[in-house]
Amino acid sequence: MLPPQEIAELKQQIAAVHEPRELIVEVLQAVQKHHGWVPDAGVELAAKLLGLSPLQVDEVATFYDKIYRSPVGRKVIHICDSICCWSRGAETVYRHLQQVLDIAPGETTSDGLFTLLPTCCLGACNEAPAMRIGERLYGDLTVERINTILADERQETEA
Question: Would you say the C-alpha torsion 112, 69, 39, 18 has a positive or negative sign?
């Protein structure tokens, strides 16, 4: 599931904290970094390392929208669906993304590049509507800007 060296490092981190629950997210992120998502075996490994039940770990995994419990594309588009973004045109942007990517929310493009996921807030209300692709935040979105962003993201992947 994880390389022995990484497991040893995680065990060392866990031993250094007062409450192992503090590191649930970090352990899940390590699994996700290695696999691209967190399969059931990853939840079980995290539970074993932390001395918790798989249910306790899965409760945290399913709470955070950047912990993926099913396979995702190489680039995950988190589109903000907060009231601020919706009041500034997110619905149009969201529909356009679904149309040009030919996917519904939660789906991945046929080439495996993009997964489209709604997220409750990106904290970019001053730039609404907004989305995040990987670690890049894009604000003041329009249909035209979406087309440019997607083309740039595709080109970056091909380079």
Answer: positive
* 95-105 tens-digit pLDDT: 999 999 999 99
Closest-CA residue to 80 (of 121, 136, 128, 114): 121
Report the predicted TM-score, pTM, of the whole model to 2 decimal places: 0.87
Nearest by Cα to 56 from 28, 76, 33, 83: 28
- What is the rounded distance in angstroms from the CA atom of residue 47 to the CA atom of residue 68? 17
What would the pLDDT profile of 51-64 be if each residue is shown by its tens digit? 999 999 999 999 99
Q: Which domains, ranges and CATH numbers included, belong to the chain?
A: 4-63 (1.10.10), 75-158 (3.40.30.10)
Pair of tokens at residue 51: 């001395």
Contacts of 5 (CB under 8 A, 6+ apart): none
Kindly report whether the peptide bond that precedes residue 39 is cis, defined as omega within 30 degrees of 0: no
Dist. CA 41–CA 125, nearest whole Å: 37
Residue 76: beta bridge partners? Answer: 115
The answer on pLDDT for 159 being more than 80 is no
Q: Where are the beta strands (DSSP E) in the chain?
A: 75-80, 114-119, 131-133, 136-138
